[in-house]
Amino acid sequence: MDAAGGGVSRVDTVVDAFHAAVGEAPEGVWQAPGRVNLLGEHTDYNEGFVLPVAIDLSCLAAARRRDDGVLHVRSVQHGAGQPLPLDDLDPHRIPGWSGYAAGTAWALQQQGIELSGADVVVSSDVPSGAGLSSSAALECSVGLALAELAGARVDPTALALAGQRAEVEVVGAPVGVMDQMVSMHGRAGSAILLDCRSLEVRRVPLHLAEAGLQLVVIDTRVTHAHASGGYAARRAACEQAAELLGVRALRDVTLEDVEGAADVLGDERLRRARHVVTENARVLALADALTRGELAPLGGLLAAGHASLREDFEVSCPELDAAVDAALAAGAVAARMTGGGFGGSVVAIVPAAQVDRVRARCRSAAAAAGFSQPVVRGVQAAPGAARLR
Ligand code: GLA
C-alpha cells in the first residue's frame, strides 16, 4: 500500500489499461474513496448533520489531456463510454455510467472551470449498488483529474457539489451532498462531521484500533439504485413535512414541533420527520463522544439509528436487519444499516478478534433465511481524493 491508501498494483493496473486503450502513458493518476456512513442517514438533504468515513475502497482515474476538446472516459469494469465534446455537453444526453463522470465535467464547466479534452481510464474496487458510494468515488476521481489537468484551482467542496449536481441533474438521482463531500474531505483514521447547511467540515478522530476495534462493512448484496422510487419518495415526504411546518428544511424543527403537528403532518410524514430530527441529535451526540475519545455511546446510538430507519423512515429491509442482528449476536459492539437503504450494506464496529466470528454468523444467518451470501470486509478510515502520481 502507498501512503495515500491505494494499492501500488492497482495503480499499475490502471496505468497499463490506459496504455492499452490510449497508446500513451497517462499524465497522472488520481484517486477518490468510497465511504461508509457511521451515523446521519437521510439527513443531508434536510440540511442536517452526517458523520461519514472515507474508506480504503476507491476509484482510480488515469488521465491525459487531448487537444481536440473531446472527453473520452473508459472503465476497466464497465467498458468504454461514448466520446463526448466538452464544448457542447448536453447533460440530458450523456449515456449510461458515463453520466457520473462526464456529468461531473459538465457541472465543473457550469462552475466556470474551462476543461481541456481528456482521455480518462477509471478502475474502481468500490462495489456498485452496495451503499458505499461507488458513484461519488467515480465523480470525485474524474472531476479532480480533469480540473487539475486543466490547471484549475480545485476547491474540494466545489468539486463535491459538481459531483452531486451530476448525479441529480444528469443521472436523475435526487441525492444529498454527503457522499461527495466525504470522498473529497475524508481523513485517515477519522470520520468527518459535516454540517450539510453550511458545508462546514470537522474532523472527528476514530480511536478504534487503540481500543482493539475494527470498522467492518457487511454488504448484503441486495443492490439499490437511488434513481428509482423509494429514495425520491422519502426526500419528497421530508420536503412536504418542512413546508407544512413552515420551515426551510427539517433541520429547523425540534421533536416537540414535529409531535405537536401530528394532525397537520399525518402519520407517515410525522414518522419521516421524527427520524430526521432524532437522527441529527444522535449524530451530534456521537461526534461529541468520539471527539472526547469515548467509544461507549456507539452501540446505543447506532442501534437507535437503525431502529429509526427501520420503523420511522422505513428504508431497511430483511437482509439488512438480519445482518445487524447477526453482527451484534456475534460480538459487534455496534451495527446499523448504512447509506440510503433498500439494500446495500451494514456498518459494524467489531472487536478485531471477533471479525471472523461476525463474518461466519452473518453468512449462516443469511443462508438460513434464504438470502444472498453477504460479503464482510474490514475497512480502514482513509484520506479523501488526491493525486497519486
Ligand atoms: C445516499 C445519498 C446521500 C444520502 C444517503 C442517505 O447515499 O447519496 O446523499 O442521502 O443516501 O443518508
What does this structure look like?
- The protein has helices at 8-22, 98-110, 134-149, 156-171, 178-185, 229-245, 255-260, 262-291, 297-311, 318-329, 355-369; strands at 28-39, 49-66, 70-75, 79-80, 84-85, 117-124, 190-195, 201-205, 213-219, 334-338, 345-351, 375-379, 386-387.
- With 389 residues, the protein is an alpha+beta fold.
- Strands 1, 2, 3, 4, 5, 6, 7, 8 and 13 form a nine-stranded mixed sheet that branches.
- Residues 41-42, 44-45, 175-176, 178-179, 226, 339-340 line the site of alpha-D-galactopyranose (GLA).
List the helices and strands and how they pair.
Layout: H1 8-22, E1 28-39, E2 49-66, E3 70-75, E4 79-80, E5 84-85, H2 98-110, E6 117-124, H3 134-149, H4 156-171, H5 178-185, E7 190-195, E8 201-205, E9 213-219, H6 229-245, H7 255-260, H8 262-291, H9 297-311, H10 318-329, E10 334-338, E11 345-351, H11 355-369, E12 375-379, E13 386-387
Parallel strand pairs: 3-6
Antiparallel strand pairs: 1-2, 1-13, 2-6, 2-7, 3-4, 3-5, 7-8, 9-11, 9-12, 10-11
Helix pairs in contact: 2-3, 2-4, 3-4, 3-5, 4-5, 6-8, 8-9, 10-11
Bound molecules: alpha-D-galactopyranose.
